[in-house]
UniProtKB/TrEMBL annotation:
Basic and acidic residues composition-biased segments: 28-37, 49-74
Region feature (Disordered): 1-74
Pfam families: F-box-like
Domain F-box: 118-162
Protein species of origin: Amblyomma americanum (Lone star tick)
Gene Ontology BP terms: SCF-dependent proteasomal ubiquitin-dependent protein catabolic process
CC per GO annotation: SCF ubiquitin ligase complex
Domain of life: Eukaryota
UniProt keywords, alphabetically: Ubl conjugation pathway
Keyword presence, Cell membrane: no
Protein's name according to its UniProt entry: F-box domain-containing protein
Keyword set includes Transmembrane: no
Amino acid sequence: MNAKRAASKGKEDRVQQKQVAAVGPDQRGQDEAEKSGNQEQTEQDLDQSVERCTRQMEALAEKAGAKGKECETKKAAPLSGDELIASTSAIPVSEVMADSEDANLDVDGNGDNLPESPDYMDNLPDDVLLLVLGLLDIKTRVLIERVCQRWRALARRLWKAQDKLSFMGVFSISQGKPLTVNILRAILERCGKSLRWLDLATASHMLDHKAVKAIGMRCPNLEYLDASGVQLTNSCLHQLANRCPKLKTVLLKDCSDVREKGLKRLLRRCKSLERLDLTDMFEFSGECFNVEGLQLRHLSLRDCSGLTMKGICRIATMCSALTHLVLQECFKLMDVDLLVLCKNLTALKVLGLARSLLHATSKGIGDAIAYLRHLEELDLSRNRSVSDVSLATISTSCLKLRCLDLTNCENGITDAAMVHVAKLPELRHLKINNVRKLTDSGVSSLSCQGHLITLEARGCELLTDRAVLALVELCRELLLLDLSGCVNVTSEAVSGCVAIVAERTHLLTLVLGGTAAEGTDFPLDGKGKLKVDLSNYSVEVYTLGEMSDIEFDYDDYWDQELYDYEVDHQLFWDSSDNEDDIDMVPWAVVLHEEIGDFLDNITDDEDSDEDFAPLAEGYL
């Protein structure tokens, strides 16, 4: 029986094979085309469903925001934070669901009374709908929670998966709809536990220290916080440090009300903190770095003009892991300060000293920076003390230097300095703007290095076509050459550059605004390897937007009708300023024995900076 069955099955298989073979290639092609057409039709149907769904959601969102628009039309007061977030009370579900048969109001706010999902949505799986809903802005995403039960559940899923939050372009003070503390609280209630990245600086907000306290209570896993421009206090920083111990990056630009005690607590409690930005804290002295075990890698102290010598020594000994340090416009730096920093922070890769060396000497600058063997980026712009002597020492010691900014170092830098700079084997980006003593000879020596990618030489009035052609011919990797304001550069330089770059694989941008070449006819580059930009970047021009920032309107920022003041905020007073630091760990870390012994004898209430300077020199 088994043999008969096997024979019968084999016979059937042979018959099927003959039938398949009998089908011609045209028939098989038609079958494949039919299958492909069916697949395309399915994809088109899905695309149409998604598009129809998106249009319906936009219509629902417009209806949901109808009340707010009506307020604007009638010039009524804008919705408050509570009204915007509690969309249940601000916008009736019956109004949002006007096209739906079921428009019951969800009275208790738990979603039980919400209507079921509309019929046209049933064809879309949750994953597809999540992708569409994920494209909505924050305010609309809050509003759609009131549409139906399914949308509410999907919106909640989106919030729970939210790990990054930015409010750029969402709120507007000028339109009477700023980001307020109440709105922030409601949003963080939805996504705070999963949030790891939060940016408040780009929002048009009316936030104070309550916002940071709200963040601390709702965002235990936060790693990145940009609270620049928020009016903070010591107590809110204390709470933030206690509740968000995983913080790795904290940006506090223009938070001038923060004091050393609050920063000290933040540094002490957040052991994983790697990046700290304290730009525009004019009264900052640096004493807060008196904390053991700091793991800071990036520290920015731009415009911290109150930085003292004792604060610098704290940074030098307690922040030995620093790789990026910016001290722009810290006017009190002297030779001894710079030497203390560079001798102790030998791991530095980026150092910014723009307009900070007013009291330093040329030799002192070079001798100090020479200790930074791993330095890759150095900003010495707007320091008249920098000279050929400084650059000679730096060029022989910092051999890993890739980026160097010498803008407006016009007093002491000559062609001799360029000869030294040309010896840096890794140099790729150089700025020598407004260094007016440089000539063709000095700039041409830079071409001998041959690896420059960008060179800015704005306002170098002695440069001519000769320097331009030498740079373009020998620096074959050059992408940008900015000569705006170099009045002696002519159109002949453009003609020469067209011929030189013709066979190169990349585009060279030549900036010639404010030169003799401006307004003349340039030869056409048929191969498209040269771009001529006639912008004049050597002249600083304030745009209308920048002028409005300069003429700052106090009423635009502090709106009494929308902002809920507190007494302690009005007086800029924080009770934590008078609290005792009972749990403060004594400063006992000595990273370098000589500096450590010296600093151990210093107390916060003794020794002014005038007495401090000669003592420091004795330990260097």
